[in-house]
Structures are given as structure tokens and as C-alpha cells.
Amino acid sequence: MGKYIVRRCIQAIPVLFGITIVVYAILLAAPGGPTARFANNPRVTEADREKFKKAWGLDQPVPVQYCRWMGVCNPDNEGLAVFISDNGVPNFLPAAVGGGTNGILHGDFGISISTGQAVSTMIARAALPTAILAGTALVLWLLFAILIGSYSAIRRYSFFDQASTVFAYVGYAMPTFWLGIMLIFIFSGPGLNILPAGGMTETRLSPPFGSDAYWTYFGGHPVQAILDIGKHLILPVITLVVVNIAGDSRFIRASMLESLSQDYVRTARAKGLRNRVVWFKHAFRNAMLPFVTNVGLEIPFLFAGAIVTETIFSWPGMGRLTIDATRDFDYPLLMGVLLITAVIVVFANLLADIAYAVVDPRIKY
Amino acid sequence: MTAEATVAEISVTIGERPAGTAPGEDILLDVRGLQTHFHVMDGTVRAVDGVSFSVPRGGTVGLVGESACGKSVTALTIMRLLDIPPAEIVGGEVWFDGREILALPEEEMRHLRGNDIAMIFQEPLTSLNPVLTVGDQISEQVRLHLKVDKKEGLGRAIESLRTVGIPNPEQRVKQYPHEMSGGMRQRVMIAMALSCEPKLLIADEPTTALDVTIQAQILELLKAVQERTKSALMLITHDLGVVAEMVDEIVVMYAGQIVEQGTAEQVLTRPMDPYTMGLIESLPSVKKRGGRLSAIKGVVPSPFNLPPGCRFAPRCPYVWDACRTTSPELIPVGGHGQRARCLLHTPAGAPRRAAVFDTAASSGTTAGHGA
Questions:
Q1: Which member of B79, B129, B144 has the closest CB to residue A264?
Q2: pTM for the full predicted model
């Protein structure tokens, strides 16, 4: 098992490398580019534009740009010397042995064009809000999907089953952007006005989330701060989980029904076991097997940032960062965000495979 | 021969006790007029249609018939393991150990299952839970019924695996079903069924999914443990060769009804129903070497469209007009407890009887008929 995990991690390297090339190529092929941000600004002259390109290295050949981003080329040198670090050794080597300090290979994601901040700092700041939103959503999603799905299967064709079927179809049919706006309309509109329409904290009460001042405030009033975040979480979490609960409760219901019709469930009943034991020890574990893979595929989309939901609710997370980076043609930031997303996808799948081996003894790696 | 006289004589062995009264102490399982129907989209299937038989304490009974004749449904009805709906137990009684178990509350029935009545299923791979160790699967039953702790439960699981001839039971209990061969898995099923020393063991085609060399081993094992534990055995099979070696009494079923019952010797050597005769003739044997194996012509009738008269009439070689309109009853023949469902044994069939049983005799079956 340990060997398998190591092998999968090593296999992830070429995959991620390939992803960087593909994403880089797609961004290059897209219309616009970093200079397009000045397109509607009459005060920016052609000369200014050239100066901007030179400053960001956009005048270099594309392979050089890519290699500089990767950390294979040294941005300070010209010609063939780009491959050599300031210490005179190949630039791609780790900084510890005298290699360069720039680029992904050295943990440097570059500088955001629109803010001038380090991309890694911006991602780190957006990661916590997304983790809070995605984590809460994940727990509620799995909990409700499993409860509703298995109970529907056990009480097939009961009122509960029929009601959850209706909920599933309605929930699955509702587009996220529409549901989010409707929730804001209902709960934050002038009528009820009981929940905040957006943001992560009440800006009139506390400093902006993530700043040092915020953590000082958090240390002073932890309960108040957590309740405040909790209040802001309610609508975006509902928006995120409704579709997932709707879809996966159906998935689990079908899986559980299949499991309940298996011979080993009949054997378990023939042994005189209580229904509870038959359902949860014998049927449920088998029903979860296909679901584990499913969850592994769905998790990255939560943690990479629920783009639509975060945008609707102005949630300062990865999803909003992605949208902002795209809108501003902030390619270093966009590349950083997409690379992190790719890493999450690769490792969520690895986790799903490991979890699969844990729950199914027939799988050996 | 008058039917009345024979019924009185037969009731001693076969048992036609009035409804609502317990059978004698010597009878462990008494099934009376059992009717199980399935309500499905296309209509109602009368899967078990008035089946009566009994199993004495420590006795062995074989339930024989083609696929879909209702033998498995009979067993599942006795265990009360059918999903209701779509199944419905329309009528009849099942007396087990002095109690009418169809009327028992589910909670009491649950205490009987696995403890007093155990069942072995056809397909050992799918009948064992793939994600639990065999030790866990055996010991959970032992712990439930014998109220022992985890350690003792596992100890008993190891013991029962040893009983069914599994080498290294201490290691085997930690294994999962997929780590075992088909024969081993069926031994595990048998070990599981015997773990609480049940009074009745129902084996539903226990060897069908196994290859031929393993089949013999499993049957020998079943016979051996049955004799040692003195539990009664109800063996369900489509294989007459299997019942011949295993059981004292045979019940032959066709299209949801019993068509013949009697001792193994009676049914196998002097079959009285054309269906049983057909089954026996289709068995390969050394005597018939070189010739073509005979088969019963046609197929089992659709359960939605049963023939109006005798259900076997469309396939019966001895059919005549009356068979297509009159449903025969299961009546005593031969005067020694054997019963058959065929018009040949009614007064109307008397003129044809001699010819039929002479034919059967000449084709290798010893036919005898009382009257």
C-alpha cells in the first residue's frame, strides 16, 4: 500500500507537468492577453504597452516565458545564459545547491499582474475561506446524501421515498446561479432580511477576513466571530449542497437497493440478524463502494472553489480568485490557481483510490 | 382400491392433519396446503400452489423439480425470507417444532432463523458478503443466537470451520470470501449454517454452482454432518442423482404443485407420475450407454398461462383428452404412502394404466402400481 502511494505520487509529476503545458498553451491561444487590460484606456500609448511587455517578460519567445515560469530559465540572463543561475549552475536545480529561486520548481508562483502581490500569498489567503465553505458543504452533502439515499432505499416507495424523489428532481434541476439569487432574494431581501447577502464577515463589526487585525479581533471574540462566519455560510452552503445532495441521494438509493437485493443480504437475513445489522453492516458498506469513487471525482470541484457560488455570495475564496484573474487577464495568478486545482484533482483521486482499497478488501494495490 | 381407505392409511406417514392442530412430536416440519403467490406487473404467479409435506426430526427430505417449479420459493416461504409484497402467502400453514411459524411475530421468527432453521444457498460466492471476513460472518450469527462474547464467537467459528474440513481454520477465519475457492466457500456456508446446531437445515441446490468433483465432496460432507448433528435436512435440487444418495423421502414438484411424493426408493424405482418417470429417464446411466439421452419434450408452462387441466399435459407422453380439462389431485398410489398427481391413477385412467407402466418397465424403469 505504501509502495502504491509513492508510485502514484511519482506518476503525478508527469501528469502535472503535462497539465502546465496544456494550460499555458490554452492561455496563449486565447484572445486578449495581459495587455488587453489597457485596450479601452486611451491614455496608454503603444510605447507604454511595449514597456509593460518588457517589464513582465512578455517580449520573450513563448518557450522562454514558459521556462521562466517553470523556473528552468533565469529571468536575469539573456541568450543561452538563461539556463544558468546567478551562482553559475543550471537554473532548474534547487536553490540549496545554487540553482535559481524563480519559478514553480522553486515554489515561486510569480507576481500577480493586477495586484503586484505574490501569487502564492493571494492563493494562501483565498484557500482558507474556500476550505471553510467547501469543508462545511462536504460534511453536510455527504451526511444528507447518505441519510436520504439509504433511508429511501430501505423504505422504498414510502412517503419519505416519494418526497425525496421529488426533492431530488427539483434540486437537481435548479441551476446554482438561480438558486443562489433566489435564496438571497428570499432571505436577504427586504421582506425577511434575516441572513447576509454576501461576504464572509460583517464588515461593520470586524476587520476584513484574513488580515492581521482580523485575527486579533478573532482572538478577542472567538464565539462572536465564528457565529458571524456561520451566518454568512448558510446561504452559500445551501446553494452548493442542494444539487449534490439531490444527485447523490439518488445514486446512493440506487446503490443501496442493488446491495439490498444481493444474495449475501438474503444470507444475512437467513442468519436471523436484526434488520438494522442487515442494512448497515451488510448492505450499506457494499453500497458505499461505488460512491467512494464518485466522491473522489466531485471533491476537487468544491475545493478548487465553487466559482459560481463564490461569485454570487462575494465569498473571498479560490473561485472568486479564478474569476478575478480571468477577468483581469492576470495570467500568473490564473496559472497558479489552475495548477493548484490540478494538484487537488490528482490527489483527490489518489485519496479516492486509497479509500476504495480500505473499504473493499478485494482491491489490492 | 378406494381412495378413502388409502387416505386413512397414508396419513400416518405423509400427514394430512386438520388445520390449526400441531403435528405429532416426531414431526419437525409440517407444511400444509402452502400457497405463495407473487403479484407482479404482468399478473399473479402462483409459485407455490397448495404444497403439503413433512420432515421428521432428524429425517431427510428431497425437494426435486426443474427450475421455477417453486421449490426454492417453498424454502424461502418456510424461512419467511420473501419480500411481502410482491410475494404473498395466500394460504396454508407451516408447523415447525410444534409452532405455526407463519403466524409468529417477526421478532420471534428472527430468533428461529439461523438458530433453529438454517439455510445454505446455491451460489456460495454471492451468498457471502465480499467485504467481511468469513470469521466475522460466522461469528456474528453465533454471538447473536448463543449470546457469547466476541472471542468465544470467533473460537466457535474456527471450530465450525474445522468441522467442515477446512484446513488451518485459525488463518482462514481472517480471510475474505474472494480469497477462497468455490468448494471452500460452500464449506464456509455449511459451517455457518451448522454453527448454531439448527434442528433443520435447508440446502437450496448446494452443489449446483460447484464443479463436479467438488459436488461429491460437498454432498458427502453434508450427509456426514447431518448424521452427526442429527439435524433434519431438506435438500432442494433438480438432480435426482443427488437425492438418491442423500435423502429418505422425495417430494417432486412441477409448476408449483407436488406431483409425486414417497420414499426415495419408491419414487426412484417405481415412479407413479409421468413427470417423475420422465425425470428418471433423462438421467444418464451406464445401462443406457451409447443411446441418446431422453429428455422431457417441451418447456415448463408460463406461470401466467397454466394449462386448464393437468399442468404437465402439454408435455406428457401419455396424455389423453381428459388430461386437458381435468386437474388431477395428489392421490395415494401403491398403498405404501406413495402419492402421485396423475389421472392414470383415477378410475378414468384405469384402462390405460397397464400400457403406460409396461412401457416404462421396458425402457429401463421398474414400474409397479398398486391396484
A1: B129
A2: 0.79
